[in-house]
Amino acid sequence: MFDLADVRFMPEHPDHAPLIAAITDEAFGPGRFVRAAERVREMASHDPALSFVAEHDGAIIGSVRLTPIAIGRAPSLMLGPLAVRPDYKNRGVGKALMRLAAEAAQDAGERSVILVGDPPYYAPLGYCPLPPGSVIMPGPVDLSRLLGLPLADGALAELVGKVGPRRD
User: Fold this and answer.
1) Is-above-0.85 flag for pTM?
2) What Cα–Cα distance (Å) separates residue 115 from each residue in 18, 58, 80, 137?
């Protein structure tokens, strides 16, 4: 029997990269490469310090990555991919990874996180729809699925413009 208490969550390590790729392939298939979120990930690398994996019985069963981006002039983070092995889906692993990533981002002084996803899944984690047209993704996206998580007061109001790489 699987128990979330038996899952160990830890920061992503370079050795995890092939395992994360396999989990992502399993979860999303090759169709993910045509999505606007993938265009964002091509512009900038994820931040391993803000990216996490879940391990159960010695196997990596899920991962979440955060990528530093800019929206207009505002720094933000793009979440994704969030992927969990099929046998562990709908058991709290993905939401635990999301919470861990958001806490780490906030502790690092980040102001917001955006993602493209299903509002009913992400709303309980604090994500809300961004105003239509405020954030311009590098490719087509269903605007009702473009969501943001404020990590600081007023942070979502700062998100206006094109998504691009962060220039620190």
Assistant:
1) yes
2) 23, 29, 7, 11
